Amino acid sequence: MFEGAMVALVTPFKKEKVDEKKLAELVEFHIKNGTSGIVPCGTTGESATLSYEEHDRVIEVVIEAANKRIPIIAGTGSNSTSEALMLTKHAKRSGADASLQVSPYYNKPTQEGLYRHFKTIAEGSDLPMIVYNIASRTGVNIEPETMERISKVKNIVGVKESSGNLEQMARIRYLCGDKFDLISGDDGLTLPVLSIGGTGVISVVNNIVPKDVSDMVAKFKKGDIEGARKLHYKLLPLIKAVFLETNPIPVKTALSLMGMIEPDLRLPLCPMSEVNLEKLKKALNDYELL
Fold it and tell me: For the chain, what is the HEC assignment?
């Protein structure tokens, strides 16, 4: 259902507020450059520091700007099941095409708790759902056997896998079948994930080079493996650079250096160190983005 090069969209700020004009411009930028889906209010969108009102508004602005030209997968996850359901219902009313549901963070539920969490949200809202597995941030991994159970729940259509574990991803693909979308959540693993049956990527680096990420996925799907491989290796140094510090600090800094947004972040995220900033600038220069 969801495939290709999708973007984990940043949330631009200006003077402490969401910059709605720049947000709409970013949507247009992605549509023009071949991005196949937009994910607002995820980790890269600094959802953890958005108020409920801001969270809802960011999703509304992105949906309005896209105007049904591209699928919108709204980040509506939470470590509170009732809160996630509330946000998801709003996304549905606003016209989102799906929701992205991160695993509950900090409270570290059991595998049974994870299953019940996602099942409750899916049954409470008539909106396709992509589960987001990223144990490095949430503190708990969704095991492949649990994902198999989750995949059988109506409205749950896929997983954004950010475990970094290809063996686990292959097991998910095997257990859940080809009707359940396996989506890479790690830019550096997009090509390997495609090779084991993945449908695409929800990408951070796509914020700055959407055409190349889109072309890499498209080439693989057309059977041009060598062409896809060349783009994979071209992208790797840039991917490394946008993860020099906690995401989304480097990618928002890159967009600012490129003149696309203000450099504003919300505490506890803060500007890059001078050492890493110089490394980022070099990567952007090497890629001819500055």
Answer: CCCEEEEECCCCEECCEECHHHHHHHHHHHHHCCCCEEECCCCCCCHHHCCHHHHHHHHHHHHHHHCCCCCEEEECCCCCHHHHHHHHHHHHHHCCCEEEEECCCCCCCCHHHHHHHHHHHHHHCCCCEEEEECHHHHCCCCCHHHHHHHHCCCCEEEEEECCCCHHHHHHHHHHHCCCCEEEECCHHHHHHHHHCCCCEEEECHHHCCHHHHHHHHHHHHCCCHHHHHHHHHHHHHHHHHCCCCCCCHHHHHHHHHCCCCCCCCCCCCCCCCHHHHHHHHHHHHHCCCC
Q: What is the pLDDT of residues 116-136, one digit of tens each?
A: 999 999 999 989 999 999 999
Answering whether pTM is above 0.90, one says: yes
Residue 176 lies in a domain: yes
Instruction: Give the residue numbers annotated as catalytic, written as ranges.
Output: 132, 160
Specify the CATH number for the domain of residue 11: 3.20.20.70
Residue 39 sits in which domain range? 4-222
Residue 151 maps to a domain = yes
- Model confidence pLDDT, tens digit, residues 51-73: 999 999 999 999 999 999 999 99
